[in-house]
Queue: 3 jobs
Job 1
Amino acid sequence: MKSLNINRLIEQVLTNCVPSSQEEQILINCANRVKKRLNSYITDHDLNHFIIDIVFGGSFAKGTWLKNEADIDIFVRFNSNIDYEIFEKYGKQIGIQSLLDYSPYLRYADHPYVEAIIDGIKVNVVPCFDVPFGMWKSAADRSPFHTLYMVDKLSHEQKNQVRVLKQFLKSLQIYGAEISTEGFSGYVCEVLILKFGTFLSTVKFFSTYIYDKMIIRIDENVSTAEKCYEMHDSFIVILDPIDQKRNLGSAISTGSVATLVLASRKFLADPNANYFTVNSNLVIDDRLKNSLVSSIIIIKFGYSNRPSDVIWGQLKKLTKSVIRFSETYGFRILKSTCNVSEKENRCVIGLLLESITISSLFVKEGPEVFRLQDVEKFIEVNQKSPLKWLDNDSRTKCLIFRNHTNIKEYLEFILKNSPNLIGIPKGLKMDLLNSFKIYNPDQNLDFDTDIRNTISKLMYTDDRIF
């Protein structure tokens, strides 16, 4: 009966994530219109000697996009003999100038590409080199080969299974390879369905996931497990069928994999539509909120314009640095989260602590008495300590009085007086120091949406996982 319920549920999900023929035709018309503009610009500006051809890619070309969520990826394939500077220059120029009517803008991955919103559809114009298979010059060169491979290998039914998997991952907020998410990319979803056949087989695999068997590959004969682990140091190894040396799992965080493992187990035990619905309203029990709010601090600051992946990478590094620095001083961080508001150019870090205050007393442990030079150095360094002693294990110890016992006051003091101690990412330092504010939600301030959402994330338990 349960298996029948799961199959019915998947059929229902498909009705919500498979695009209509009308939507498909709208996308095709938009893609062809953009391709025509690109070709016209290339011809009118005598750039044909640089360009080999223009091809469609991504989920649009492979027929795996989610209903009402398609991006159109168009790859402009350059002659592989040209210099990288020319490739980058004309890659930007062709995209920008061809789409001037649609207010195009630059995005950045391994190299710049152009994005525009056309009739509500996001269109990406991505330059790549026209290279022989395996002779990659840029990160985007594999993409046309990915498209050809999946178009050839995925059946119509499997394409729909990819859509179900994407919706499942999206609802769990682990869909997308961007640094902000560090989840499963659309291409990884396609590889998983090609490997396991169906959405159900995929979640069954992850529900029984064992660490020492976390290698996923289409061709089992390509290399041994030992060799894979020697080459790839990541929690999950997913080999790219187009480039067996490339690990698609390197962009997926341990947390994203763990989320999929737990969610797969619970879904199979109790399949329901909640696993395919994005929960944007995080409801927190009032008693829990009242218990934890005094143990939270929020760090907010503005930042100057930069690509999304850049600011997210910097913010995540900063969050780790703040946690490491605070814990070294004696504070205990239980949970953390961070968020970027690209519309407001604002970053928020949220920390849930065991307590926002700690004792003014701290016991510093030194070496054993047998280590003569180390003991002498320890005594010299800690001369100002009012109390020194030996413990029962012959270790030297001394008492230190902390200057700060409140984490909010401590971080404010350090950021104003000795910010280099924290390890702030270089590109973020001035933005942080010029605009940071630190709050404790217990102050009953009127917080904006970003801060309220950050606080909710710190207190939220997803019952689809636990």
Job 2
Amino acid sequence: MNDKYLELRARRDELRQRLKAIHADYRQGLSADLEEQAVQLENAETLSEIARLAQLELDEVEKKIRSYEHT
């Protein structure tokens, strides 16, 4: 297999894992501790942006993988 193709697949797996971890974090909800809730809410916007960028990159990586698979 082509090295670039293997790199793309590895990157895809990394991005999928990152998104899975972010979604798991969201599913946990907010802490009962008010101070912890404040930190979680401060971090929510950053986490959301990380998820958005990871999804955009994942879409591009998957597109490139498909192009390798159809050539």
Job 3
Amino acid sequence: MKTIRRLLFWILVSGFFFFLQRNLSALLSSIQINLLPKDYAFISKILISISWLAIFIILNILVNKIFWDRLFSRRIANKTPSLLKYISGFILIIIFVSLIVTQVFDKSITGILALSGGFGILLGFTLQNTINDFFSGIIIHLEKPFLIGDFIMLNNTRLGDEPLIGRVHSINWRTSRLQKTDGTMIVVPNNQFTKLVLTNFSLPEEKSRIELEFCVPYEFDTKRVSDVILTALYSLDSILKNPRPKVKVPRTTADGVIYQVRFWLLPTKTSPGRGRDHVNQAVIKYLHFAGITLSNARTEIFHAPIKDKNSRLRGKKKNLISEVPIFKSLSTENMEYLCDKMNRIQIKKGSTIVRQGQQESSMFLISEGHATVMVHDDISDKDKKVGKLGPGQFFGEMSLVLGDLRSATVKTDSDCTLYEINKETMQGLFQKDKDLLDHIVAVINSRKTKNQSILEFAENNPEIHTDTYELIKQKIQTLFKIF
């Protein structure tokens, strides 16, 4: 409404002064004023000049409201910068002033044009970087190579040899701001985006594909290695499960077999660098607990006995046992005894290893694969997922040493290799290691005391009961007949 009132006002101004110029002679005669021809011509030129200037203001309003504020803003999906409006207004006023000088006052503007041209060259040379940044910002808004929130990589030589990687925080007309993965904010001149190669991890789709390679010696079966790596990938929440991660064997080298790992992630949630870190750590961890080593560059030859398969398997068992707190005190001899007695079990994907509420007396150590832990919710009458288990982790120790009912259901998410420690094996350990009982009681008592403190805090009930040290010891002695 305000714009319409402005237009009507200037239309009236233009029409009024145009009417005065056309009827100037009659108006002067009616008020009995006699002017010299020279003065009459000058007043007439002034009136028509004012009318033309009013027309300039009308055109400028129309250009700003129709072209800049509607068409151009809609095209760039952003507010038009005021500088563009000032530039278009400046061009229009130059055109109108030139027309008034040449057509109304019949004067030459060659000298003025030469002077303004020289001044424009000097101004452009002085502000060339700022002008370059500004018009680069216009190009960015028009072409939209990236949007706010996109994760991009820019080979920015101003900041060093490493490429600049970050999330687009804002896009302005002279600069754009990127938030790096370390949380810092980088202000980048817009001309850098038009001069350097830019990679947008969020286009044409929001997800991005990452590839990593691992070299494994020839002695390991390729299918088994691929399965272990895939299991590691599926255990991560930071990468996408659809499209599915893939493991391929594109080539071999003198050092071993190359396994190419291909996975997808959302850069807006997980940066490519962080995604690579998560995948590297998971793959190395899962290969380690599966007894699979990565290749090293073979630059020297050593003559030494090669470890047999049983030695490697025993080393893998020891790594698993060392992760269990109740076995931390075992001597070397008893560690060897436990390695010999553990039962190796293969479980297929989707199988239930233990079920909540069952009375069993064994614990399990995961060597390969991963599983989901679920607890039954009495309100919804459904099993609720409460955690995940992977290589190097264990479950069921309370059922083994205390005879407790299974506190949760554990189901496999992939093919799993487990090692089972049963009641007979523990009976033998207690007979061989007289100090093991006190160590296990201390570990369990510490855990129960911690859990009790959490429950008391959560429920504000200091009377929650837990077994004391002596009660736990008596329970184990009774279960395993230790007297």
